[in-house]
Amino acid sequence: MTTQKSCFNYRYILLVLCMFFILPTTTLASSLTLSGPEAVIKEGYFTVSVRANDMSELNRVTIEVASDSNFTESTRQFPALGDFKDISLTGFSNGTYYLRARAEDTDGQSYVSNTVEVTVKHYPLWQALTLFFIGLVIFITLVATLLLLHRQWIHSKQHKHHD
Amino acid sequence: MTEFALETSTGITIIILFGVFWVAFGYWLGRKNRTHEDFALAGRNVGFAFAAATAMATWVTSNTTLVAPQLTYQFGIWGMIGYSFAALGLILFAPMAKRIKELLPNGYTSGDFVRLRYGNLAWLVFIIISVVYAFGWLISLGMAGGILLESLSGLDYHIGMTTILVICVGYTLFGGMRAVIATDFIQALIIIVGVSFIAYWLIDNVGLESIHSNLTSEHPKLLDLLFPAAVMFLFNNIFFGLGEIFHSNVWWSRALSFKKGVAYKAYLTGGLLWLPIPIVTGFIALAAPQLGIFPPSPDMIGPTVAAAVLGKVGAVIVFIVIFSALASSLDSLLAATSDLVTQDIFHKKLKPKASDKTLMRFNRSCILGLGIMTWLLCLPRIATLGALLNFAGAFVASTIWPIVLGLYQRRLTGSYAACAMAFGTLFGMLGYFVIGFYVAALVSCAVSGLICLVGIMRSNKQFDWNQLDEGEQIHADK
């Protein structure tokens, strides 16, 4: 029992040492993370953020968007602007999209982040059109009221002037 | 490292040169101010050219130069067209301005009108709405200054925001309304020439066909005329624009400062001149996907794309145009809000016998205080410009019906007007949080309108218009 426990400790220490030596070369790869909206998107636009342990090491950050989690179908790429690590994406139709970030370190080595799933489901058209027509009715009523009342005032002013 | 369109030093140099010019100009104009009426309303003697220019330039603001591209980037074609409908605010205010000038020949502010027409309760609700809106707009303008400098020159947001606030507070403090209107005139000329130049350059260099084909294949929703959120946004934006203009002292103080017979033509011309500007600034955002530009925040899209397409010279022009747009609105808002506080709270409620000199001194302190508060509130970048502005939409749209009916209709009483504004705002905020920012103003206006309708149907009182004329009450220094 005692011997077995001692062996385990040695292996554990060896593992930690290995991790320690491996760690510097994988810092960026293991820490490159992409975060996006968790709720269902109803407007077709959203913002995603790329993070890493050492942000200054990140170059050429690009977001890849695909309609399948293996990124084999209709993959599109959206480059980040300059040094910024947040990216606003827009104009998405209904559907589920898979996003991941791709970035390079200062040596030109390419890394890929985790995959984020974003669901876009626009408001039903009937709901939008209902609000549209409510707005239209209120607007027409408002303009008609304003012009009518203004005209009445002008007429009454002219009437008083003649009197 | 990021390649910004302008060197940071170039951005700072432009800001300092313009800043020194505006402040010196404000100081020079301010020497002619003898009374508080001179300072607050430019002696009530502004002619047509200056009047139309100040209406148009004040309405071209961070909304038009930064939020119109943001909303186009988010909502596509409807974002652009819907935004331009905000011109209806100026156009429909034209007849009202004529009526305001007639009803309140000695009036100073929109608050004056609400207090005299509806009484203290409605006045209180109105003042809360006005203050929330004024701060929302002031913060959005301060933030826009920081965002502009950051997107074009990489200058830290806080430094850019602080610089623009200091300049605008500076020349408004020295020159009052006279400086605001005179600088607006120059800024309007810069905006019209600059925007026409950018539109020509964009169409000539990028081309409509290539933008259209890219959007069709990569972002079809932006071209979709049945894009649900965008369809909801359309009338919301119209009501937001109407609410902003109908209630805000920025527009009332202008109507009162114009010469007799000028206000109607000035607002109509200002609105028509303003109409195409969001189309141009919004169009810039549609070119973004084709150019491979995806900003960190959607409100940065306008200047970023313009600078990318137009190069360094273009970036300088964009910078000057947007800076002029921001300054022309920021100064107007500072002046109008401080007038509101000075006249409605200090003069009418706290010191009715205040001398002319005291009022002028208090007005200047208000401008400075507002500048400092805006700076403090701009420090944390709390939301995107579009979201921040549209939150205010829930507040201002509730004032549309009480203002229109209050100006022309005798039967609406103060208690119903107060309820309409309070409940309109509450329901608008509910819409903002439950559905989204693109319905806040629509819901607010609808609820407020219904309450006003009930108020008119149930009331049998007739308001006496003569109660609106308080006469001149300021006591000149001996």
From TrEMBL, chain A:
Alphabetical UniProt keywords: Membrane, Signal, Transmembrane, Transmembrane helix
Residue ranges of the TM segments: 125-149
Protein name: Uncharacterized protein
Matching InterPro entries: Ig-like_fold
Organism in which the protein naturally occurs: Idiomarina ramblicola
Signal peptide: 1-29
UniProtKB/TrEMBL annotation, chain B:
One GO BP annotation of this record: sodium ion transport
Single Gene Ontology MF annotation: symporter activity
CDD domains, per database record: SLC5sbd_DUR3
Keywords of the record: Ion transport, Membrane, Sodium, Sodium transport, Symport, Transmembrane, Transmembrane helix, Transport
Record's bilayer topology term: Multi-pass membrane protein
Subcellular location: Membrane
Entry-linked Gene3D superfamilies: Sodium/glucose cotransporter
Membrane-spanning intervals of the chain: 12-29, 41-61, 73-94, 121-149, 155-174, 186-203, 223-246, 267-293, 313-341, 362-382, 388-408, 415-433, 439-457
GO CC annotation: membrane
The family this protein is said to belong to: Belongs to the sodium:solute symporter (SSF) (TC 2.A.21) family.
This protein's name: Urea transporter
Species of origin: Idiomarina ramblicola
